[in-house]
Design goal:
This protein has 941 residues and is α+β, with helices and mostly antiparallel strands. The protein contains 28 helices and 31 strands. The two termini are 38 Å apart.
Length: 941
């Protein structure tokens, strides 16, 4: 008996849905898109390779028709789905409810060409009731949503594949541009420019501790002689001076100290008391952006990680769809929350009427519901922890609490403001009491513990009334300095993109990930620091492509895509205008840029002029950024933020470079000079000078833990002596060698190696110790690492609850949770190294390991069976080429012997030609892969 076939994107989603259905249904996964635009030149069909538009994958000459291909790795899956469709009585396409999901369903329909009835299932949560409702009310594929997604995909491809080559030619190879990616980078760079222009201001104030009877409280000075005392907001960020025209008192070190002594002689009394009631309303339920922001603040999750965990929760049926910009809630959700509030918190926390939240999104088709626990009875967070682990539990608990809180009563309380007269100064104290916590009992934004936060939010003052005399217990002078604007974090960048109307819920996490992965920014703690490369690229884009990276233009594009998805706008008209319009269009901008952009100009970032008139600048070179004054060059230390490179600091780096490397002496055997030099990746030792035509000098990096100033000739010679021979093993006759390798110091005998334990030095180990070590069973690096003694205990990871410790390794200190190890950045001060820093390093390393997947051993059958499709294709082509060329051997000859000789020669030549041809194809494939990496802009949805 044939079954109804349901196709979803992922196997996890398929497994969850299958639990709710009977035997008459079969659920299969497409594993995402089954076809897409070509990712490299090798994907383009041979018949189309000579077309001008082939490299784009978009036929710009024929209504922007996209060239869709089925990737090699998806062909087997497509064949399996085709077979399943042939045996099915009907087909249900149940991909996600957004534009991307609609597009996947459309592509499945185009590829599978089913001859059975086809229906589209849409649901915002994976529960039995939701699936049954979807089966009872299927619909057709929404062509408008498909066109909107396809238009976005085409625009992103045109932008990435047309603008990126301009960056290659004018700045450096392997760069990428993207419609939203470039705007996000611009935001980071503009914030860094603000920090570079920032001038800090210093100001002082007084803090007093006053007594009313036995009860004490603190108050801060607010006025002197009736004029307000200046605070940080009153100073110009670019000058460090008070805002012109402001009539304020600017206290300095001496004036504040003198004022303190003067006021200690005066009597204090209450000049006025003001009480005002306040009401705090609960926050709306989560949207994609607010979930990413709160998970970043509260859990330390990056945007990509948040979406990965949310996807797991959704596919396992615990939350509603996690890509949404709507705060709408269904009647079912509100009823479930109100029932839970009455049961868990009591009737007094339940408002008489449900709370309704409105969304500002125009596109009602995609704004289904906020992110919330799924179903009519919310699963308790403890169950999620048992089934999916700590990470999923923490994120689900966040969603669960936010949903419950949004249907609770307001928090109400009283704010008290007290003015205290003390001589010619006025001090101000404020208090806050909470009469009814309301929703704060369940959820406080940015806080892990609502109960503890309630206590922190209350600041209770003693009973005070006008005229009360007070005792001045103490006065303290306090110095302050204005701070530069904070760099964006992942959460705050997403918040700003949302405020500007740039990108959509399905795009933000990918945008941030692309910015970090393309070396346009790096993370320092949670802050996103733009690189010098990002500054140069942004400068070029602002000057020559300003119209297409303008914030307002990019936001309007999102609105136009929404209009296309609602059927209100023609997508072809929009594409024509974007590509060849009068703004001008992208095509004209690219052609103009290739003609007029001066590479020398755009690759330079001016820093200013020194006192002796030298103009300093950072230039982007083939191997990264460097400093120059037109004559001398100097490397920029890796990881240095643009705002940290001052004119004075740059001048010092250039002067140090001009002095040349430090000569430690001459090598006692070769007589060559030994230099201590500094490069982009840190200090290193060099033996001899670099002379054209001669052998390259031997170079060796300092070992971890070595301090530059403490390296002398003896130490340098030891480093250069590696690898060091300990002599022959008397038993095997093989040489024993010690060296420093990729995974740290090791000893080697023949092919047998062992890592050196921490108590054995590379330079002091004896032959006997080496033989003893080689006789022991091998230990994995993880076990070796586990034996390292902790340098510092950081505390527990907020998500995994594993203890984080800093240990000493062969490559320097690293932080570990017992499973994941992450090296500390060079130069890290352990005293300043915090738990937040440790969590950030561990999370980044864990994410990288997860993305790369488990490493497979070479030579195994599994490895061979999982050979990359490109590799198989390359081998197939090579074989076909060799057979074709060999077949061209001449069929006639004067004699059999001559014929055989000639054929043999020809065959050998053909094999050689075939090998060359295959090698050329392999090189071409590598080049195409490099091109793909460099120019593929963000895959936004």
């Amino acid at each position: 008996m044939s079954k109804s076939l349901i196709i979803v994107e992922s196997p996890t989603k398929a497994k969850t849905i299958e639990k709710f259905l009977g035997k008459e249904y079969e659920v299969k996964a497409s594993y995402g898109h089954v076809r897409d635009l070509p990712q490299s030149a090798s994907d383009v069909p041979t018949a189309l390779k000579k077309q001008k538009w082939a490299s784009l994958g978009i036929n710009v000459e024929n209504n922007f028709e996209p060239l869709y291909i089925i990737p090699e790795e998806k062909k087997k899956r497509v064949k399996e789905l085709e077979n399943s469709v042939k045996e099915a009585r009907e087909l249900y396409l149940a991909t996600d409810e957004d534009r991307e999901g609609e597009s996947i369903s459309w592509h499945l329909l185009e590829v599978l060409r089913p001859k059975v009835p086809v229906k589209r299932l849409v649901f915002h949560e994976i529960t039995k009731a939701a699936i049954q409702n979807a089966l009872e009310s299927p619909r057709d594929i929404d062509e408008n949503l498909v066109r909107a997604q396809e238009t976005r995909r085409i625009i992103d491809r045109l932008f990435g594949y047309m603008v990126s080559p301009v960056l290659w030619k004018k700045i450096t190879p392997r760069l990428s541009a993207g419609r939203v990616q470039s705007v996000a980078i611009r935001l980071l760079v503009q914030r860094e420019r603000e920090r570079m222009r920032f001038k800090s201001a210093s100001y002082w104030d007084l803090s007093g501790f006053f007594l009313k009877g036995t009860e004490g409280f603190e108050a801060e000075i607010s006025q002197v002689d009736g004029k307000r005392v200046a605070s940080g907001k009153d100073f110009e960020p670019t000058t460090g001076l008070l805002v012109p025209g402001s009539d304020l008192v600017h206290l300095g070190r001496e004036t504040s100290a003198a004022l303190k002594q003067e006021l200690l002689k005066e009597h204090a009394y209450v000049e006025g008391v003001e009480e005002k009631p306040f009401t705090n309303r609960p926050y709306p339920p989560f949207t994609t952006s607010t979930l990413q922001q709160e998970a970043s603040r509260k859990l330390g999750f990056g945007a990509k990680r948040t979406m990965q965990v949310a996807q797991t929760l959704y596919e396992n049926g615990f939350i509603t769809y996690m890509r949404t910009d709507s705060t709408n809630l269904s009647t079912e959700a509100i009823t479930a929350a109100r029932t839970l509030i009455q049961r868990e918190y009591g009737q007094e926390y339940l408002p008489p009427e449900p709370r309704l939240y409105k969304t500002k999104v125009k596109n009602a088709q995609e704004a289904h519901e906020a992110i919330r626990p799924s179903g009519a009875d919310f699963v308790h967070p403890a169950i999620v922890k048992d089934r999916l682990g700590a990470e999923a539990f923490r994120l689900y608990e966040l969603i669960w609490k936010r949903m419950v809180a949004c249907q609770m009563k307001d928090a109400v309380g009283t704010r008290v403001s007290v003015q205290i007269a003390l001589g010619r100064a006025t001090f101000r104290a404020s208090g806050r009491t909470i009469q009814f916590p309301g929703f704060l009992r369940a959820y406080v934004e940015g806080s892990d513990d609502p109960e503890a936060d309630l206590a922190d939010r209350e600041k209770i003052l003693p009973p005070l009334k006008k005229g009360d005399e007070l005792e001045v217990k103490n006065l303290d002078t306090l110095e302050h300095a204005t701070q530069p604007p904070a760099r964006y974090t992942e959460g705050s960048l997403i918040k700003e993109l949302e405020r500007l109307g740039i990108g959509r819920p399905s795009t933000w996490a990918t945008i941030v990930d692309v910015v970090l992965s393309r070396t346009y920014a790096f993370k320092r703690g949670n802050a996103l620091v733009p690189s010098f490369l990002a500054a140069a690229v942004t400068g070029l884009m602002e000057r020559y492509f300003e119209k297409v990276i303008d914030y307002e233009f990019t936001a309007h594009l999102e609105e136009d895509l929404d209009a296309i998805s609602r059927g209100e706008f023609d997508n072809l008209s929009y594409l024509r205008d974007f590509y060849a319009g009068e703004r001008p269009g992208l095509d004209a901008l690219v052609r103009r840029g290739e003609e007029i952009i001066d590479r020398k100009e755009v690759c330079g970032i001016p820093l200013g002029a020194t006192e002796d008139g030298r103009a300093l600048e950072v230039r982007i070179g083939k191997y990264g950024p460097f400093l120059t004054d037109g004559t001398v060059r100097a490397s920029i230390p890796d990881g240095l933020a643009p705002d940290e490179l001052t004119l004075e600091g740059a001048d010092k780096l250039l002067k140090d470079a001009q002095q040349g490397p430090m000569a430690l002496g001459a090598h006692p055997l070769s007589g060559k000079p030994i230099y201590l030099k500094s490069g982009r990746f840190g200090p290193y030792i060099q033996e001899g000078d670099l002379v054209e035509g001669e052998e390259k000098p031997k170079m060796a990096s300092l070992l971890p833990g070595m301090v530059l100033e403490e390296v002398d000739l003896e130490t340098a010679l030891k480093i250069l002596s590696l690898p060091r021979s300990l002599g022959l093993d008397p038993d095997s006759g093989e040489e024993i060698v010690v060296s420093n390798g990729r995974f740290g110091p090791y000893v080697k005998r023949g092919k047998d190696t062992r890592s050196l334990p921490l108590d054995l030095s590379l330079f002091d180990i004896t032959t006997e110790q080496a033989r003893e070590l080689l006789s022991q069973p091998k230990k994995g690096r993880g076990r070796q690492a586990a034996e390292a003694k902790p340098l510092k205990e950081m505390g527990k990871h907020p998500v995994t609850e594993l203890l984080l410790t800093v240990k000493s390794g062969r490559y320097g200190p690293y932080v570990t949770d017992g499973t994941v190890n992450a090296s500390l950045p060079s130069g890290t001060n352990l005293e300043e190294f915090t738990l937040d820093h440790a969590v950030s390093l561990i999370d980044a390393r864990a994410a990288k390991v997860a993305a790369e997947g488990p490493k497979k051993k070479k030579g195994t059958r599994a490895k061979k069976s999982e050979a990359a499709p490109e590799e198989k294709k390359s081998k197939s082509k090579k074989k076909a080429t060799e057979e074709e060329d060999t077949a061209e051997a001449p069929k006639k000859a004067a004699g059999k012997k001559a014929q055989a000789k000639k054929a043999g020669a020809k065959k050998a030549g053909a094999k050689k030609a075939g090998a060359k041809k295959a090698a050329a194809k392999k090189a071409g494939a590598k080049k195409a892969a490099a091109k793909k990496s460099a120019i593929e802009s963000e895959e936004e949805e």
